[in-house]
Write a structure and sequence with these properties.
Number of helices: 11
Strand content: under 5%
Distance between the termini: 36 Å
Largest sheet: none
Structural class: mainly alpha
Radius of gyration: 17 Å
Number of strands: 0
Order of helices and strands: HHHHHHHHHHH
Helix content: over 70%
């Protein structure tokens, strides 16, 4: 299991691992929430410390930047490609082609800017231990949202996301990921945590519908966008309640 955690942690962050092959990562996708705990502890501790001495908006900026650096902007790039694909007019093939384009279009640029602004504002509205809990829970929910998306969705086309969807057809693995997530969410967040979980699950269902209609299924970029949007949605719910 330790090697499995190492492989998914390497996939989700900038920290390298010799076990980080696509097949190994996909096989251990159900451990994404565990990696989310580790990431959440790092950014949560940073946010907690900064919030004790720094202006809230500066805290939001620095924590958002730390998330981007620690995760290598890997999934944020998926969000940009997802936005580009959605905004292209035409059939599913044209939309998929736009997502695969290495250059970021205007829709992707606007999407990333709005996402980062929303993330900075949401983080700035909490402080101290509340911020620590919010960042930790939201990071775990972001990772569970990808697991759930892979479990429920069908690949739009053969590609790097196919092994993930195939591996997560195993309902036992989904149950393990859900149990890890639920224990942490309820233990740290209580009622607010359950609302955050509900928001992320509703988001997954909405994105599944949008992806099926626009692309014919999910892609790696859809999974990346799910991670980013679930993080933001859960943070917004936390600071709202």
């Amino acid at each position: 299991m330790l090697r499995g955690i190492g492989s998914v942690f390497s996939f989700l962050t900038i920290i390298p691992s010799s076990d980080a092959t696509l097949e190994n990562i996909a096989k251990n996708m159900y451990l994404f929430p565990v990696a989310g705990i580790a990431i959440g502890l790092v950014v949560g501790a940073l946010g907690f410390g900064l919030s004790l001495a720094v202006d809230p908006l500066i805290v939001g900026l620095l924590v958002a930047a730390s998330i981007a650096i620690l995760t290598g902007i890997h999934h944020a790039d998926g969000l940009a490609d997802f936005a580009d694909g959605l905004m292209v007019r035409g059939n599913k093939s044209r939309k998929l082609a736009a997502m695969k384009d290495v250059s970021t279009g205007s829709a992707g640029t606007v999407g990333i800017v709005l996402y980062m602004v929303g993330l900075i504002i949401a983080i700035s509205l909490a402080g101290g231990t509340d911020l620590f809990r919010a960042l930790l829970i939201s990071e775990v929910l972001a990772k569970f949202a990808m697991v759930l998306m892979a479990s429920l969705g069908s690949p739009a086309a053969p590609g790097s996301n196919s092994p993930f969807a195939s591996a997560m057809r195993d309902r036992k693995k989904l149950a393990v990921a859900a149990a890890i997530t639920l224990i942490l969410v309820v233990g740290l967040g209580g009622a607010a945590g359950l609302l955050m979980l509900a928001a992320s699950m509703i988001l997954v269902i909405l994105l599944l519908g949008i992806s099926a209609r626009s692309f014919g299924g999910i892609t790696g970029d859809v999974l990346g966008a799910t991670n980013e949007l679930a993080r933001l949605a859960s943070l917004v719910v936390f600071v709202s309640v």
